[in-house]
Design a protein that fits this description.
The structure is a homodimer. By secondary structure, chain A is α+β, with helices and mostly antiparallel strands. The first copy, chain A, has four helices and eight strands. The structure holds a DNA duplex (30 and 30 nucleotides).
DNA sequence: AAGATTTGTTAATCTACATTAAGAATTTTG
DNA sequence: CAAAATTCTTAATGTAGATTAACAAATCTT
C-alpha cells in the first residue's frame, strides 16, 4: 500500500495486462475504459477523489479495462492479492456503483442517461471534455451537443 | 442460512422493500429486474443454478430491484447483515459479473449483445420466453425476432 | 380437445441517435 | 502571441431499432 503521484495522461493499467492493482484516488481524476474490437474507447467509469478504480479484482486474468489519469493525481496503490486490504465494506460499495451504472445504461433515452450522469458526478462536467462524457453515456459527442441544446431551450 | 423452496412466479423481493436477503440458487432459475417510472420491466440478471442473486447488499436502503422465480427453485437464503457469510471471494466474483454486464451493454449492436448473452447463459435460451431475453438485452421482442431471423439466414 | 391467453413472427412506418461534413470556439504548443 | 491541434456546434442524411398492427404458433385452462 503505497502513495504514488501521476501526471495527466499516464496510463496506469493496460488492457490485457495481468494486473494486481487497485487504486484509491486521493486527489485528481482517473478513468477506466473498455476498448472494443474496432479500437473505439468506451468509458466505463470516472474516479474522482475518494473513489476506487480497478479491473475486476482477479489477478490471474488479463485486464479488460485500461486505466489512465485525466488530471495530475495522487493515488494509493494496493495489491489485490492482499485480500485483507480489500474489505467487504468497500467491495459492497463498489457493487452498488456498478449496479447503478447498469440501471443507468438500461434507462431508455440518452437525455435521461445524461441527467443520471450529472447526479452521479456533479463536479465532473467542467473537468473533462464533452466527448468523454458522451463516451460514458454511450452516444456520440454530436448527440450530446444536441441534448444540451434542448435542455437549454427548455429552461 | 436456510434452505427454501419456491414455486414459479413467486416474488422473493419487492422493489422498495428493505431487504437483507441474498439468495444462492441450488436449482431452478430466478431473475432480478428493475421497474422504470413507466412501469416497464428491465431484466437486470438471470440466476440459474450456482449463481447468487440479491440487491446491492445495503440492508438499510430500499431495494432497487425486484426478484422472482422463473421456475420452481430451491434456494439458500442468507442474511446480508451477517457479513461473515458474505465472503470476499464471492463479492469479487459478483463484481466481475456486473462488470461484464456493463461491457455487454456498452457493446454497440443488439446482435452482439445477443451473442454475449448466449455465452453468459448458454442454457437459458430454451428456458425463458424470448421477450425476457429481449428485456435483458434492452430491445423489443420484435427486434430480437428479426435478429434471430438474420442469424439463421447467415448460416 | 376446445377455447382463451400468452408468446412469437413479419411487415410498414416512425424516431432517436449515428454518420458525415464544415465551420466556430477553445485549448495546446512552440 | 500566433499557429496548430483539439473540441464543440449545427445541419443534412442514413440507419438500427421502436412502434403499431395483424396474424401464427405455442401454452394454459377448464
Amino acid at each position: 500500500m503505497k502513495q504514488i503521484s501521476v501526471k495527466k495522461g499516464v496510463i496506469l493499467q493496460y488492457k490485457g495486462e495481468f494486473s494486481d492493482k487497485v487504486f484509491f484516488v486521493e486527489s485528481g481524476l482517473l478513468r477506466s475504459y473498455y476498448i472494443d474490437e474496432r479500437g473505439k474507447e468506451h468509458i466505463f467509469m470516472f474516479a474522482p477523489k475518494g473513489w476506487i478504480i480497478a479491473d475486476s479484482f482477479y489477478p490471474d486474468q488479463p485486464c479488460q479495462l485500461q486505466i489512465d489519469a485525466l488530471e495530475d493525481s495522487i493515488l494509493l496503490k494496493v495489491k489485490k492479492t492482499s485480500t485483507s486490504d480489500l474489505d467487504v465494506h468497500r467491495l459492497v460499495k463498489r457493487i452498488a456503483v456498478l449496479q447503478n451504472r447498469i440501471i443507468m445504461l438500461m434507462s431508455d433515452s440518452a437525455a435521461k442517461r445524461y441527467d443520471h450522469f450529472l447526479e452521479t458526478y456533479p463536479d465532473i462536467v467542467q473537468r473533462v471534455p464533452q466527448k468523454m462524457i458522451a463516451s460514458y453515456l454511450g452516444i456520440t459527442p454530436e448527440a450530446l451537443s444536441t441534448i444540451k441544446r434542448y435542455k437549454k431551450l427548455k429552461r
